[in-house]
Amino acid sequence: MNLPMSMDQALTYARANRERFINDLMEFIRIPSISTQIQRAPDIQRAADWLLSRLERLGFQTRILPTGGSPAVYGQRLSSDASAPVLLLYGHYDVQPAEPLEEWSTPPFEPEVRGENLFGRGASDMKGPLMAYLAALESTIAAGPLPLSIKILIEGEEEVGSPHLEALMAREKELLRCDAVLNGDTLLLRPDLPTIVYGLRGLAYYELHVETAAHDLHSGLFGGASPNAGQILCELIAGMHDSQGRVTLPHFYDDVEPLAGEERRELARIPFDPKEFLSQSTGLGIIGEEGYTVTERVGARPTLEVNGLLSGFTETGSKTVLPARAMAKISMRLVPNQKADRVKAQLANYLQQKAPPWLKWEVIDLTGGPAAIVRRDTPAMRAAIRALEGAFGAKPVFAREGGSVPVVSLIQNLLGTDSIMMGISLPDDNLHAPNEKLHLPSLARGTEAYIRFFHELIR
Amino acid sequence: MNLPMSMDQALTYARANRERFINDLMEFIRIPSISTQIQRAPDIQRAADWLLSRLERLGFQTRILPTGGSPAVYGQRLSSDASAPVLLLYGHYDVQPAEPLEEWSTPPFEPEVRGENLFGRGASDMKGPLMAYLAALESTIAAGPLPLSIKILIEGEEEVGSPHLEALMAREKELLRCDAVLNGDTLLLRPDLPTIVYGLRGLAYYELHVETAAHDLHSGLFGGASPNAGQILCELIAGMHDSQGRVTLPHFYDDVEPLAGEERRELARIPFDPKEFLSQSTGLGIIGEEGYTVTERVGARPTLEVNGLLSGFTETGSKTVLPARAMAKISMRLVPNQKADRVKAQLANYLQQKAPPWLKWEVIDLTGGPAAIVRRDTPAMRAAIRALEGAFGAKPVFAREGGSVPVVSLIQNLLGTDSIMMGISLPDDNLHAPNEKLHLPSLARGTEAYIRFFHELIR
Asked: Looking at residue A88, what is its pLDDT?
């Protein structure tokens, strides 16, 4: 069997072209494909076109899959051997907004290499992992034919919660049918600790609006007797956690499966150092739900967070108003078995119980997706383990990740396939934050792991 | 004595010129003299120039009194009789910002008469009362000489807390020396209820900043274990009141003089109707400190209010961040004997006690001024009572007002003179809010009351 030889050739090719792949990635990062900002639609299109032309150069048949929003990019390069396994690569080409711009050391869309890192919005979430896919594909294809069919789906709305993905996948179910899925949109816990994520939290994201008067009131004339929307919003939000860090929405934990002892022991194997956590997060403290480790809190327990607050007068100077309106963006990270519609009802129940009866309030659905757990005992999973051991020289750790990748449960439900989640972004890569970066040695190792995974799948 | 005759002539003149005075006021409102917005400095200057030319036409000697910020306008028209009493009129020509603009029915700086009301930013606070001064002066002067010397001081920074007024008044103490002061920057409680305000709350206005991390964090990766600045700000603010509506800052009430029984009985004479209050305020409820009437809560008790909130992502759509920073504008209305520096220390003590030890927080002073109480038994006060009885045909009510007019205590301290506070703005005039308006019949009655006051002072 000539597979080991073609694998070695592919790995050699990847190493020889490392600089070029980095330059290509920088070109890709320069396209500010921010899906949450409507005025970026032309950049979204440019990013999709960039991917199309890259895939075409690699011999892929490509299609733009239109959605109600940003288009998805699809490509396939099928083996002439009809019995070859089919691997679907999933990714997203859209990125988070870059605000607050003043906190970036270099402009977010002018990528710059400093030391071992490449800085830029999307460098690790997830244009870097997409580049690892493309580099691994190019290297593998250059080394000769392989009895493996590759499909690739790259959406443009992941950062806004993939609102059209379910409809798209249902429509294109036959096109997307596959035997295994690779998803690089998860974390590598340390550069030397190969990581397979087997659990993801879901997301339920809302806007809460409260209104206390028809318009802002003079705080001198009415302060002390007329209600203040900003004040009431703060009280409502403060009441959403108790002193043990638990969420107080009625029945919030009813659907939460308790963590099994086996799983808690497995999660405890993931190294945790408070100093390192503080340094990675840049946070000034560690908080959370009593009775759970930090690894469990961020990966395996549900949370409720304020993502934004706006009320009253916020410009420079002073304005003596009682705000009539206040808004909070509130999101919850969900664990398996929690459902977004039940969580929304729990939030509404909380507000019915806690809000003064005269308060006008409204909860607006923004985005969301369920949590996911994948099996750890499939052939594809074993291929992934071998690929990571080969690339990193170490046994991978199984982790549950706090973020949400809605596509994983969609693929489970629609195609019946579990995803192999092995990414290359480090916890200190500033995902969704200023100075997002990609660790370039991890890009190289990830590329190598993906090349090995392609070959291990057909062993 | 020919005074009644000249007074009747002046009142006749005022009635005959009513429409012209309204047109002049509309011209004045069209100048967007917003003191809190630095880019409005040219409009501030235009408003000052407009007043200067009006006063010069009335035969006043005028001067611009420079300050570190917006200039003050000064004018005097002294009687040839050196023993004539000196009346100082105080006012301000600056206005509040007009935001939120979308809530105005007509543009804030394009005044429009609808029914009995004139709509526009500054219509009642306080370009309307300034117009009542100017109309009363013009009418009185037209009716012939009066043994009364008039001085007028119109500042341009009242809406930002009069930061330069104390230094200015200390410097110009001799110029401003007077026997009585008229201040029209207070409320008329009802169109048919002539009102003299004898107490004003002070103001202490701060910005509170909290910081929990170097930058915003990914809510999936860190949510549940890393702190959230928006959440913590809400908890801190929620804790600033107890369930009885009392402010919880340590020792906050120590300096507050208890309300005497006589005063509570006098305040209880002010009519209060919850329905009317809700309609005037447009508020959806009535809240406040237990054990006090609404009249006491808004006039005679200290308060703490959130005037603005800002944290995290507040644009359209969703961004899954844990905010690293959060800001609140927080102001307190003070009653006599409370001091801004002590209140600031109480706020800092509260934060020291309640904030997690690792939290970075800062309290920035924005503006403030002490509360004031004036005597109700002076000759000038008796002249005011007679003037209001004459103009309204009803006995005036004595009220304490919740707003702050820092100049009243400054004049008390620097010149030793109590102010007569009788304004023409109604509680439903939307002061500091969208759709600010002036009740035009009250402008006419106020003009009449001021004409009568000029004459009553020399009786």
From this structure: 98
The answer to whether the beta carbons of residues B230 and B326 sit under 8 Å apart is yes
Is A284's CB within 8 Å of B433's CB?
no
Which residues, 6 or more positions from B276, have their beta carbon under 8 angstroms from its beta carbon?
A: none
Reported as a single tens digit per residue, the pLDDT across B4-24 is 678 999 999 999 999 999 999
Q: Domains plus CATH for chain A?
A: 3-200+371-457 (3.40.630.10), 202-256+301-369 (3.30.70.360)
A203 close to A406: Cβ distance less than 8 angstroms: yes
pLDDT at B1: 41
Question: C-alpha distances in angstroms, B326 versus B108, B213, B321, B359?
Answer: 31, 11, 13, 12
* pLDDT mean over A346-364: 98
Q: How far is CA B421 from CA A178, B202, B395, B401, in A?
A: 82, 15, 15, 10
CA dihedral A167, A170, A175, A176 (to 10 degrees): 90
Residues B124-142: pLDDT tens digits?
A: 999 999 999 999 999 999 9
Q: Which amino acid is at A340?
A: A
How far, in Å, are A35, A94, B275 from residue A44 at the CA level? Answer: 7, 7, 54
Taking Cα atoms as reference points, which of B356, B306, B223, B330 lies closest to residue A235? B306
pLDDT in tens, A32-64: 999 988 888 999 999 999 999 999 999 999 999
Those residues with Cβ within 8 angstroms of residue B302's Cβ, 6 or more apart along the chain or in another chain: B201, B247, B252, B253, B256, B332, B333, B334, B335, B338
State which residue of chain B sits closest to A294, comparing Cα positions. Answer: B225
Tell me how many helices (H) and strands (E) chain B has. Answer: 15, 18
Please tell me which residue, A51 or A280, carries the higher pLDDT value.
Answer: A51
Beta strands at A112-114 and A117-119: parallel, antiparallel or unpaired: antiparallel
Q: Does the pLDDT of residue A359 top 70, yes or no? A: yes
* Alpha helix stretches (DSSP H) within A300-416: 340-354, 379-392, 407-415
What does pLDDT average to over chain A? 94
The structure tokens listed for B209 are: 């900043």
Of B11, B36, B363, the residue nearest B205 (C-alpha): B363
Residue among A194, A189, A92, A200 nearest A426 (CA): A189
Mean pLDDT of A334-346: 93
Q: What is the mean pLDDT of residues A85-89?
A: 98
DSSP one-letter code for B187? B
Residues of A in contact with B226 (CB under 8 A): 281, 283, 285-287
Query: How many other CB atoms are found less than 10 A from the CB of residue B365?
Result: 13
Give how far the C-alpha of residue A123 lies from the chain's centroid of Cα atoms, to the nearest Å. Answer: 13
- What is the ipTM for the molecules in this complex? 0.81
Q: What is the pLDDT of residues B301-317, one digit of tens each?
A: 999 999 999 999 999 98
pLDDT for the residue numbered B2: 44
| Ramachandran region, residue A238 (left: φ > 0; alpha: ψ -120 to 50; beta: rest) | alpha
Residue A374, φ and ψ in degrees, nearest 5: -115, 160
Instruction: Residue A380: name the closest of A454, A304, A275 by CA.
Output: A454
Q: Which of B215, B282, B298 sits opposite A224 (nearest CB)?
A: B298
Which of B275, B295, B306 to mutate against chain A (most A CBs within 10 Å)?
Answer: B306
Q: How many degrees, rounded to 5, is the angle at CA B225 between CA B223 and CA B227?
A: 80
Using CB atoms, which residue from A97, A321, A360 is nearest to B319? A97
Closest CA in chain B for residue A200:
B220
Is residue B403's pLDDT more than 90?
Answer: no
For residue B406, is pLDDT > 90?
no
Rg for chain B, CA atoms, rounded: 23
Q: What tens digit of pLDDT does each residue of B170-204 get? A: 999 999 999 999 999 999 999 999 999 999 999 99
How far is A203 from A213, CA to CA, in rounded Å?
32
**Structure tokens given for B375:** 């005597």
